[in-house]
């Protein structure tokens, strides 16, 4: 299904859910007829339909992102926060990364600062990991690979199995001219837990490094293909291995 058609269908669903929510908030049933349900049941229905609206709006934002309509995508993600306030730090981080992707470093930094304010109220390591990840990506967007690597490494001290931090730390090492160290890090990841780390972004980076490192890259790619085949089966997209 094309992103345009997907977006149109999701827009229809969003409209339906908004209409149902309006009926419930007016004291009516979902279809707009009179209702005699208790206030408690009505509140439960409002929460249910607000959650459904949030999921549809998030899917629509993802479609807009695929269509590269960044302004509307950001607006849609901000709307999701109203339906799912508990996901505010994750959504603000995602919006910040959209601005990083289009090169608007200042706006990205502003969103990441908002995340830091929100995560101060959170318990546990996940809030800290989110803040460190945003700082790392901000430095990555500024081509400051030394600082980006420092933050990715700090994440790995807290959560050694974090695939995103591991993969990006290796990329930073590559840009810092430390190809051997970068290769060692990615190979150690894949060998340590193939089921967890054998995904496209890691394998694409690993095969790129093989091409830079050795004229025997074809043999190493073949070994990766065999590892993928034993774990993932025929459904895996092997284009990331750049075998052609």
UniProtKB/TrEMBL annotation:
TPR-type repeats, residues: 129-162
Domain of life per record: Eukaryota
Keyword Metal-binding (UniProt): no
An annotated GO cellular component: Golgi apparatus
InterPro entries to which the protein is assigned, alphabetical: TPR-like_helical_dom_sf (IPR011990), TPR_rpt (IPR019734)
Keywords assigned by UniProt, alphabetized: TPR repeat
Alphabetized Pfam families for the sequence: TPR_19
Keyword Phosphoprotein in annotation: no
PANTHER family: D-ALANYL-D-ALANINE CARBOXYPEPTIDASE (PTHR21581), TRAFFICKING PROTEIN PARTICLE COMPLEX SUBUNIT 12 (PTHR21581:SF6)
Protein name as it appears in the record: Trafficking protein particle complex 12
The species this protein was found in: Rhinolophus ferrumequinum
């Amino acid at each position: 299904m094309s992103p345009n058609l997907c977006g149109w269908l999701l827009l229809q669903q969003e409209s339906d859910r908004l209409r149902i929510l309006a009926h419930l908030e007016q004291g009516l049933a979902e279809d707009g007829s009179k209702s005699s349900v208790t206030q408690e049941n009505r509140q439960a229905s409002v929460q249910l339909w607000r959650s459904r609206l949030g999921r549809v709006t998030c899917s629509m934002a993802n479609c807009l992102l695929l269509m590269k309509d960044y302004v509307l995508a950001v607006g849609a993600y901000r709307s999701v926060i109203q339906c799912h306030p508990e996901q505010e730090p994750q959504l603000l981080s995602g919006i910040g990364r959209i601005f990083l992707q289009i090169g608007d470093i200042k706006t990205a930094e502003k969103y990441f600062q908002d995340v830091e304010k929100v995560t101060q109220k959170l318990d546990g390591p996940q809030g800290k990991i989110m803040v460190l990840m945003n700082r790392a990506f901000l430095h990555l967007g500024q081509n400051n690979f030394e600082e980006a690597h420092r933050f990715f490494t700090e994440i790995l001290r807290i959560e050694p199995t974090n695939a995103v931090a591991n993969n990006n730390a290796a990329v930073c090492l590559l840009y810092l001219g430390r190809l051997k160290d970068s290769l060692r890090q990615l190979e150690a990841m894949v060998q340590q837990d193939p089921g967890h780390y054998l995904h496209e972004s890691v394998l694409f980076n690993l095969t790129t490094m093989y091409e830079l490192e050795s004229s025997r890259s074809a043999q190493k790619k073949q070994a990766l293909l065999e590892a993928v085949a034993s774990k993932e089966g025929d459904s895996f997209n092997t284009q990331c291995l750049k075998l052609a």
